[in-house]
Amino acid sequence: MILSLTARAQSEQPSFHYRALLSAFLCILLSLLFSAVAHAHGVADGDKGYIQEISGTHLLPFTYLGAKHMVTGYDHLLFLAGVIFFLYRLKDIAIYVSLFAIGHSLTMLYGVYAGVNVNAYLIDAIIGLSVVYKALDNLGAYQRWFGIQPNTKIATLVFGLFHGFGLAAKIQEYEIAREGLLPNLLAFNVGVEIGQLLALGAILIAMGFWRRTPAFLKYAYTTNVALMCAGFVLVGYQLTGFFVS
């Protein structure tokens, strides 16, 4: 569908130029926005101090932290927004979200429990690339450039694995006690899923209203270009942090 929209947009030159300008404006706006809020997606000092002072099993605090991390995790949410952008059936949404959840749960639990220390900047850069990948997929770029359509389910699972290592890197910033580690991690993962469901619910409601209007198809191309720009901004920010640190 997006291919025909792109072809139609290119045949309507004034409209196409307007969308290109709108895409460029959104890219600049997102660059400024993400450069301002990029520091927010980390471990709050208050949360970190509290977790470092406690030991043993604390299910509710870790569930809250997991939900809070996901709700404020704009990189994860951008990827999920891209995944469900052209999904209309709840069955398909459930399949893709489940694959993503399985992927990030496995690597999050393994990463923390085994003490795998992966550089957070590099992992977050890969997460930014996952946003770029999904936006290009929605734009039909792989079919036009390479004549192939990657398996989106496998891609969602694989990027879910990377997102899990990103979560593991954030959790290890808490420096949590080993006592009660496994139940606390499971509680954190439950919180992540709760936060994911809450955020996805809000996104689906907003998109549900948007899809009922002609503006959805009219601006689907522009929105995915802006999504791609946001992914590149995240990659650039994280790589800059990696080399500076």
From TrEMBL:
Pfam families: HupE_UreJ_2. The chain crosses the membrane at residues 64-88, 95-114, 120-142, 154-172, 184-207, 219-239. It comes from the Bacteria. InterPro entries: Put_HupE_UreJ. Residues 1-40 form the signal peptide. Keywords: Membrane, Signal, Transmembrane, Transmembrane helix. This is HupE / UreJ protein.
